[in-house]
Design brief:
The protein is an alpha+beta fold and 206 residues long. It folds into two domains: 3-73, no CATH class; 80-145 and 160-193, no CATH class. 23% of the residues lie in helices and 19% in strands. It contains four helices and eleven strands. An eight-stranded antiparallel β-sheet has the order 4-1-2-3-10-9-8-5, with helices on one face. A three-stranded mixed β-sheet has the order 7-6-11.
């Protein structure tokens, strides 16, 4: 097992809420380990068989309880391929989050589905830790179904939001959230991030 990937599961995929303590750990089975916060679920296709059947906190202590039946929510049918450059999506979302007016509910349109960028980024952070961003094969299954991301090492799903195709790429109004298309996100990132930053003038108010 790659400890860096397991650490990323703890950092980005386990729940931070106290409501369901079992989701605050990584669950181990014979051949996989998994983490979920109900919005994103990531399965690492490796495990330590000695830990099979346990759910662990990052310090190695056990969490008692029944881990959710995660295999049921992973799509079994073949969806529509999503031909995004996921390395670029990862960089663009991380940049977009730092911009003025960013709303945590901002979304990315992925085919017919729309996913909150925060949720999608959580999954992509684990792929990044695994070095797999360039190897992601993605599928979408419609507006109310999860987005499926897969590589040789990882399988992840990101839960969608209610789709509203009419609002894709509209300008932000006040502090409301926006829905961006892949092309708009990548183009905005490419153009705006390459502009030279204005030098800050110390004590400009004087």
């Amino acid at each position: 097992m790659n400890k860096k990937i397991v650490k990323a599961l703890f950092s980005y995929a386990v729940s931070k809420e106290q409501i369901r303590p079992i989701m605050q750990g990584v669950h181990f089975e014979e051949d996989v380990c998994v983490a979920t916060d109900t919005h994103v679920l990531v399965v690492y296709k490796a495990s330590n068989p000695a830990l099979a059947g346990t759910t662990k906190r990052e310090d190695g202590t056990d969490i008692k309880g029944q881990f959710p039946a995660f295999k049921r929510v992973i799509p079994k049918s073949k969806g529509k391929p999503v031909n995004f450059n996921w390395s670029q999506v990862y960089k663009a979302i991380k940049w977009f989050k730092k911009q003025d007016g960013y709303n945590p509910q901002d979304k990315l349109a992925v085919g017919e589905a729309q996913v909150t960028m925060e949720i999608l980024l959580s999954a992509l952070e684990v792929f990044n830790a695994a070095g797999d961003l360039s190897f992601i094969k993605a599928s979408e299954f419609g507006p109310s179904r999860p987005i499926l991301l897969e590589s040789d090492q990882l399988t992840a799903i990101a839960m969608p939001c209610e789709a509203n195709l009419e609002k894709v790429d509209l300008e932000r109004v006040d502090c409301e959230s926006v829905i961006m298309s892949y092309a708009n996100l990548i183009n905005t990132y490419a153009i705006e991030s390459s502009k030279p930053k204005e030098a800050k003038v110390e004590m400009a108010w004087l």
